[in-house]
Amino acid sequence: MTIVDEPTVTADEPTPPPKPGWLRAALAFLRNAWRGLTAMRTALVLLFLLALGALPGALLPQRDLNPNNVVTYISQHGWWGRLLDKLQFFSVYSSVWFASVYVLLFVSLVGCLLPRAFEYTKQLRAKPVITPRNLARLPHHSKSEVDGAAEDVLTAVDGELKGWRRIRREESAGVHTISAEKGFVREFGNLVFHYAMVGLIVAFALGKLFSYTGQVIVMANGSTWCNSGVLQYDSFTPGLRVDGTDLDPFCLKINDFAAGYLPDNQPISYNSDIEYQSGSNLASDTWVPYDLKENSPLRTAGDRVYLISHGYAPQFTVTFPDGQVRTGVIQWKPDDNSTYLSEGATKFDPPDTTDPDQLAKKQLAVTGLFAPTAVMSGGLISSTSPALTDPEVSADIYQGDLGEDAGTGQSIFTIDQNMVTEGKLDKVASANLKPGQSTTLKDGTRIRFDNVQQWVDLQVAHDPTQDYVLLFAVLMLLGLITSLTVKRRRIWVRVTPADQGPGAGRTVVEIGGLARTDQAGYGEEFGKLSARLTDAARAPGRKDD
Amino acid sequence: MPVNEQIAQYSNWAYTSAVAVYVLAMFLYLGEQVFSRTRAKSEMAEMAEARELVGAGGGGISIVEPGDPVDTGRPGDRPLSERLGRMAVALTVLGLVVHLLSIVLRGVSVHRWPLGNIYEFMSFFSLIAISAMLVMFRRFPIRRLGAFVLLPVLILMFLGGTVLYAQAEPVQPALQSYWLVIHVTVVSTASGILLVPGVSSLMYLIRGAHDRNPSRFARFAPKLPTAATLDRLAYRTTIFGFPLFTFGVICGAIWAESAWGRFWGWDPKETTSFVAWVVYAAYLHSRATAGWRGNRAAIINIVGLAVMIFNLFFVNFVDTGLHSYAGVGS
Which end of chain B is least crowded, N or C, by CB within 10 Å? Predict the structure, then answer.
């Protein structure tokens, strides 16, 4: 869209010193490249490439959203999957090719916008253009003859054109014209839209640098959790410029969680009763209550806390043969989101044992399945509802070496099956337990299923620029609406005294109109306007009402 | 609150009735096509329209239907095609009323805004598309397009009423927000409106091909509105639907921020909305670019509609993203 006039070197100007051929060629290349890049055609093609490039992100699994699906996809599609992976099709929005398209588009946009802004300010100062000689050749035209002197008619018409940028000119003796224009705000809206888009992209990019999100599971039994460092999280995704120190300080206390269900098990509500402290409340240790639920995150200290999911944690109490008691409660993982049949492993160390050999013989793990509403069929446990109405654990109890010292990370939801196959960890009992029921091992250890607690999965998000993104988005929308609804249009009036012929003494009013916007539908407005102007011309001085 | 099964049943009956009425209307529109006389008449009308385009006389635009003789007001004087066309419009309005009733009853039966699953969404989309068509009937001489707007709408309504049907139910917690009302209503309204320019652009391509080579689509194209009218219709409807769509996406981002923890996350549906948005932006730019007006712009608009429909109804089945609230198969 940039139309740049070639600067013409006139004879009067001193000729610049000749440049070496290669430099000139390089400059010419740069200039042509710049012009090519900032041309509307290029921008269009780049827009298409952007749309085309974004599509695989919707059709193929993406690492950011679902890394497991990516692994599955690659393994299922062989060389094709590996090729796509190499070409960054599983992380489209951080791929080199997607980035190059949007960077080019961004440059093209800015290169197009700057000259247009200058052009616009120049146009704002320019006077409306001279009236064309033959108004009848314009798309919109009307002509009429009225009584009254040309001067009065001119003043009356001029008064009707209030709100238009206009100028009166005298063409020749007695012949006056008015040139009027309206709709400059269209281009203003256009520029606002595009500049706001630039602003939005910049704010979005900055947000990616300075944002972070983290996820953590907290027991909903009055446990507290503080945003004091990366290690507090189960998983943490920092922006490029976030090193994990200096997180916004705040603390949470999760008192309770409750879910509501319909008879057909469809969930209808999730609520977590929490308290939080931030800012000066941290020093004074004041807790502020908050009802955390879906669609209603806690916003504090520049961060947002979301309730992502929930689950159950059966609590077990182990009474060791020597009479010592240990209680364990840890989250179990829901395997089925519609019934919340969950699996997990609650692990115990024998008390007062530091000797690694003893430890390796006497560690305990309660594993198996937990059903919030249990039904047993053929010895297998299953759940009929996610609600906690008739909980039961189908437990396998293992004793021996859990292998936690092996140095490799261990899932908190399972035991290390290698230890079982190596014979270091033995299944010593199986039992179906309801709350309050217990089972006793051969060595006298008693394991009791006490009750069920709940846990919540919280997400903490920090994005310092998201308010700016919203601001720019709203500006874009306003600019867009303005640029699409306002019509850029011109009207010209020529007032000629009819000196000769039968109509001598009267005045000929000729009106022409031109819309500078495609498909503007100016005809209707012009029709009304020219009728109004003619009316005013017929009765100069009479106030139009 | 429990679902009122009785009212839900009435809603379903109204839906089926609306589909039946629309089908009848579509055949009447087709009948108008078939029985209208071609060439000589329509070309005369075209000339009339061309005159009107340059705004001869500077008066207000008075719309003359191509191929229609001057209306004398007495029904008996109208040719068969005209009568069929008028009946088609009347039936469309009737269908629309029944259709609206179906949506209202659905909302009453489940005590919530009736846009909670893909069936309800398709139904509302269709309602808007047909309303947009009727509004445009009043502004442009395009009654002949009726059948071609109704056809895709009916296909979607059929799919919505059969394979994609979802029982009347309350929605899950993530959807219990006033943003459901705002975001989903705005997006489905915008996309319903954008169906009209898509169909119009398709007809523009056919009409344009015929104008360049009269032997192509020789029996069908002359009965269509002129290429200029179709182009104008597409543009005028798009510049209404596009900002509305933009607003809907922004609302979606605001909702996503409070429901999912981020305002934009390249979820499949977000991505495809972005693609659709870019395509419509390209359409608007193409109309201001030499060499891209006309056919190319029309193709871009059709691509935009294709992406839109894919996004609204089918992306949920390609990949499971956060927007998979379709309520199908669960």
Answer: N
Task: Give alpha helix (H) positions in A379-506.
Answer: 417-421, 466-485
Question: Which sign does the torsion angle of CA A513, A517, A521, A524 carry?
Answer: negative
Which of A541-545, B13-17, B64-68, B160-164 has the highest mean predicted lDDT (pLDDT)? B13-17
Whether the per-residue pLDDT at B53 is higher than 50: the answer is: no
Dist CA B315 CA B321 (whole Å): 9
At CA A330, angle to CA A325 and CA A331, rounded to 5? Answer: 155
In whole angstroms, what is the distance from residue B73 CA to residue B85 CA? 15
By CB neighbour count within 10 A (0-12 exposed, 13-18 middle, 19+ buried), where does B283 fall?
Answer: buried
Whether residue A40 and residue B259 make contact (CB cut-off 8 A), yes or no, is no
User: pLDDT tens digits, residue range A251-273?
Assistant: 999 999 999 888 888 888 899 99
- Are the CB atoms for A193 and A485 separated by under 8 Å? no
User: Quick check: pTM over 0.90?
Assistant: no
B291 φ/ψ sector (left φ>0, alpha ψ -120 to 50, else beta): left
B40 interface with A at CB cutoff 8 Å: no
Closest by Cβ to A58, choosing from B57, B173, B319: B319
Q: What is the pLDDT of residue A6?
A: 38
For residue A522, the chain B residues in CB contact (below 8 A) are: 55
| Mean pLDDT of chain A, nearest integer | 86
* Beta carbons of A233 and A216 less than 8 angstroms apart: yes
Which pLDDT band, with edges at 50, 70 and 90, does A518 fall under?
Answer: low
Partner residue facing B281 (CB), from A47, A262, A528? A47
Closest among A146, A155, A147 to A178, alpha carbons compared: A155
**Nearest CB to A304 within list B247, B261, B288:** B261
B-chain residue closest to A515, CA distance: B54
What is this model's ipTM?
0.85
Residue numbers in B near A60 (CB within 8 A): 319
CA–CA gap between residue B14 and residue B295 (Å, rounded): 40
| Per-residue pLDDT at A486 exceeds 80 | yes
Question: Using the beta-carbon criterion (under 8 Å), do A139 and B55 form an inter-chain contact?
Answer: yes
CB-based contact B247 A93, cutoff 8 Å = no
pLDDT at site B219 = 83
Counts for chain B of helices (H) and strands (E), in that order: 11, 0
- Give the pLDDT of residue B56: 39
Tell me the mean pLDDT in the region A385-389: 91
Is the per-residue pLDDT at A304 higher than 80? yes
Q: Tell me whether residues A519 and B235 touch, CB distance under 8 A.
A: yes
Contact A524 B61 (CB under 8 A): yes
B200, B274, B314, B317, best to mutate vs chain A, most A CBs in 10 Å: B274
Q: Give the gap in angstroms from C-alpha B9 to the nearest C-alpha of chain A.
A: 19
CB contact under 8 A, A294 and B173: yes
Residues in chain B: 330
Distance CA B327, CA A63 (A): 26
Of A93, A474, A521, the CB nearest to B266: A93
| Kind and range of the H or E run holding A449 | strand A446-462
**A509 strand-pairing partners:** A144, A495
CA gap B131, B133 in Å, rounded: 5
Instruction: Report strand pairing: A489-498 vs A425-433.
Output: unpaired
**What confidence tier does A540 reach under pLDDT thresholds 50, 70, 90?**
low
The DSSP 8-state label assigned to residue B226 in this structure reads P
The answer to whether the CB atoms of B261 and A524 lie below 8 A apart is no
Distance from the Cα of B89 to chain A's closest Cα (Å) equals 25
B62 pLDDT above the threshold of 80: no
Q: DSSP readout, A18-35?
A: PPPHHHHHHHHHHHHHHH
